[in-house]
């Protein structure tokens, strides 16, 4: 009889302790979050952006509408980490409310390029002798025509104005005099089109470069040696000046 009483007592204590433990157990958290990832400027949805909860392994990608959805056991508030190729990564603290996150496009400075006869080449990998003059170097300088602005802007390039006449072609020399009887002037290329080659015997008429507006020029490449100017053949015996003009840009 005593053994039965003790057994019943132990069973009662066991049930009471289990009940108390069950009452103290926290319910499972099911936090839900809806959000959208868009471009900072265009507000267009970003497809395939990576969205992760910081400090966890929980992560999703945005769908075709730039939307994402989380249902996890993570308590609010928590931090989202958003990343996408071509955009700056971002961290955002969320509290459960629907959210729109805007990413800023990542703009990196490109390597300086050199314009040559067959296209462009990165300056750091180009082995020819060249000099590049950008628009900032000749901006706000008083001159009758753009060719007068080139003086002192590139090594090996000499500009001499024989008279004060606007249409009088200046004397342009790249690395000195290369001929006695033929033209001494360099080949001038504007946006891929030859505009000036000089004349045999060195006779020069009106200045064809005076019609070029300096404000329209984006950059000037001076090709000095044979390897840099080889694609132009014998016309480039006195060097080449390649002029690139400004062009319209999207949303500019």
The oligomeric state of the chains shown is single chain
CATH topology of the largest domain: Ferric Hydroxamate Uptake Protein, Chain A, domain 1
Structural class determined from secondary elements: mainly beta
Could you tell me the number of beta strands?
A: 16
Q: Would you kindly provide a written description of the structure presented here, covering whatever features stand out?
A:
The protein is mostly beta strands and 252 residues long. It folds into two domains: 31-103, Carboxypeptidase-like, regulatory domain (Immunoglobulin-like), CATH 2.60.40; 130-245, Ferric Hydroxamate Uptake Protein, Chain A, domain 1. It is built from three helices and 16 strands. It has helices spanning 2-24, 135-138, 226-229; strands at residues 31-39, 50-53, 59-61, 67-72, 78-83, 90-94, 99-103, 113-116, 119-122, 130-134, 157-160, 171-174, 187-190, 193-196, 217-223, 240-245. The strands form five sheets. The protein has a five-stranded mixed sheet with strand order 10-15-16-13-14. The chain has a four-stranded antiparallel sheet with strand order 3-2-5-6, with no helix packed on it. Residues 21-28 have low confidence and may be disordered.
């Amino acid at each position: 009889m005593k053994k039965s009483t003790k057994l019943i007592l132990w069973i009662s204590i066991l049930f009471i302790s289990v009940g108390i433990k069950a009452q103290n157990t926290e319910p499972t958290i099911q936090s839900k979050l809806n959000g959208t990832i868009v471009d900072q400027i265009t507000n267009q949805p970003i497809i395939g952006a990576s969205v992760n909860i910081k400090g966890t392994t929980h992560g999703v990608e945005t769908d075709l509408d730039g939307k994402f959805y989380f249902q996890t056991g993570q308590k609010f508030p928590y931090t989202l980490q958003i990343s996408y190729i071509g955009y700056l990564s971002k961290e955002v603290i969320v509290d459960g409310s629907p959210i729109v996150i805007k990413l800023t496009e990542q703009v990196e400075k490109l390597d300086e390029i050199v314009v040559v006869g067959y296209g462009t080449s990165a300056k750091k990998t180009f082995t020819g002798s060249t000099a590049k003059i950008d628009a900032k170097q000749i901006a706000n300088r008083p001159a009758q025509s753009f060719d007068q602005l080139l003086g002192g802007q590139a090594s090996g390039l000499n500009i001499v104005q024989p008279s004060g006449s606007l249409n009088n072609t200046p004397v342009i020399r790249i690395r000195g005099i290369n001929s006695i009887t033929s033209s001494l002037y360099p080949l001038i290329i504007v946006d891929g089109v030859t505009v000036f080659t000089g004349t045999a015997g060195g006779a020069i008429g009106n200045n064809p470069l005076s019609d070029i507006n300096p404000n329209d020029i984006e950059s000037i490449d001076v090709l000095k040696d044979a390897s840099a100017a080889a694609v132009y053949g014998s016309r480039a015996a006195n060097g080449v000046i390649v002029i690139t003009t400004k062009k319209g840009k999207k949303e500019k």
